[in-house]
Amino acid sequence: MKKGHQVTMKEIAKKLGVSVSTVSRALKDSPELHPDTKKRITEMAKSMNYQYNLLAQSLRISKSKVLGVIVPELTSHFFSSNISGIQDTAYKRGYNIMICQSNESFEQEKANLKTLVSSQVDGLLISLSRETKSYEHLQELYDREIPFIMFDRVTEEIPVSKVTVDDAHGAYLAVKHLLNQGCKKIAYFSGPTDLYISKKRKEGYLEALAEFGIPEKDSKVYVTDLTTEMNRKVTLDMLKEKELPDAIFAMIDPLAIDIMIALKDSGIKIPEQIALAGFTNNPTSAVVEPSLTTISQPGYEMGQLAANHLLDQLDDIVSDEPQSFVLLTTLIERKSSLKNQNLS
Amino acid sequence: MKKGHQVTMKEIAKKLGVSVSTVSRALKDSPELHPDTKKRITEMAKSMNYQYNLLAQSLRISKSKVLGVIVPELTSHFFSSNISGIQDTAYKRGYNIMICQSNESFEQEKANLKTLVSSQVDGLLISLSRETKSYEHLQELYDREIPFIMFDRVTEEIPVSKVTVDDAHGAYLAVKHLLNQGCKKIAYFSGPTDLYISKKRKEGYLEALAEFGIPEKDSKVYVTDLTTEMNRKVTLDMLKEKELPDAIFAMIDPLAIDIMIALKDSGIKIPEQIALAGFTNNPTSAVVEPSLTTISQPGYEMGQLAANHLLDQLDDIVSDEPQSFVLLTTLIERKSSLKNQNLS
């Protein structure tokens, strides 16, 4: 992939005050457009020295009928659910998928992108690695007009469609539930603070506290790198403090389960002494003792929606105009937080 | 991929009583071989009308530096561990990997193979779907001399290298452990009986019983399709029988956990009334209550070994002669089976 600025359809669209898909249709000589509009657009394209991207064009025409998918990791239940949703949808529509994982590495994400583009996939679905903080590789993909959309781990820097879940609202639901159980001192166990979901879920945590009249200065945040060792250490260190929380909201379920094990090992009763809630709804969370209250993220549905939207773009069923889809999360009440009732 | 018989290097090797890699070296004009040997081989190749596979050749020379991987499913912890092992190894050796999942479907496995071969991967690592009972697609790959090896779900029909775990021995270890705990009536909960691992693990189960003087007629096998619903139903039906087992060996951990939940719901004490052991060592198995005794399968190591062996073949570090690697499994003792001791 060589660099250097190329005039894009987006720039032509902006100059003329029309949509990118109108430009795209004009350059494809679509019969849907008025001849005058087509003429205006093709003349502008010519005057701006627009190079119709022949590679992207031939990709679209040749139709490998393959989508490329890049995810940070495959061992996560959430991402493997995304992939199942993508694959089932793609397969129904006559496409196969090839998957690469970045292993949370920026370098590997770039290598994955190169590999999939060389394989002439018709389009890509991308979820960013934890390390990805610059976006030239995606900008280049965008400039080359290779269709792609982003899901779950996205960036606002690139104007393509995005599918995410409402992280802040999910966290708000979990913390509000703990407050409704009578908990008053709720701690938030967070992953690395520069992670998008760490921030978003903290927002929801603070919002629920505020709603119950608890100011931010009375909030309590513990940060871990999300390794089992550090999750355990942070929990045991917390237990040495003078004043303990009466509830913990953990950013993700695997962290919640590490906290649960450390609390149980220290003789703390859950939920009586400390109530606990997570976020993700991994299968494990239903079978631990006590079963874990959590927020369900619709991973499979997210994959379905992302794949359907990309394929709709490829098939010109919808325009290439970027759209943002936000899926709702739901609270799943289980034993780890229910102080007032008995639930099986 | 078109069909039709092509003379293979293997057939030339057989005619001359030499190895496939000797034929391969002769046709590549390797300086390691004696000129007479080279002459003998190239003349035979000519007389048999051997078509040196230019596509495979160019693939080997062009070196996309990408390996293709096909697994039955990505949601399984075992296969995602395999992939991590493959990816880490490939990455260290300068290769990227593209992954396809067959979703346990024979048709999708064939489509995956076509997709990856079209993408000009340098080689493939394949684990078969549950449905795969004929092997023409693999035979064709073999005839086209595209390098590949198989792992975990393999077939003896195709003469390529294979990496597997010792399923029968692992099952033997689990059942022997239950017998050593004083259990005398051990039931085997099996998946569909035509699955390779159902058979192999049953062999190990029967072998352990035999060693303790229990004949096959006193064994007890329950079969499920491995869905959570049926796992639960089979367990609850078993509990209605007059005589209950004092231990259960479950073919895989997810089945063991479904059994555990059904037993607990029915008020059965584990391990006091019924001891329980699984096979896989999923992360969940350590955190359920009681923690699950299981057999550890070295999934990551299997991926490493498979990738290293394939890359060694591609780099001519080892010959293309098929080899079989069998990795050992180990017993992990946890609370669900320990009747005589206390373990944390």
UniProtKB/TrEMBL annotation, chains A, B:
Keyword Transcription: yes
Keyword DNA-binding among UniProt keywords: yes
Name of the protein described by the UniProt record: LacI family transcriptional regulator
Transmembrane segment boundaries: none
GO MF entries: DNA-binding transcription factor activity; transcription cis-regulatory region binding
Limits of the HTH lacI-type domain: 7-61
Sorted UniProt keywords: DNA-binding, Transcription, Transcription regulation
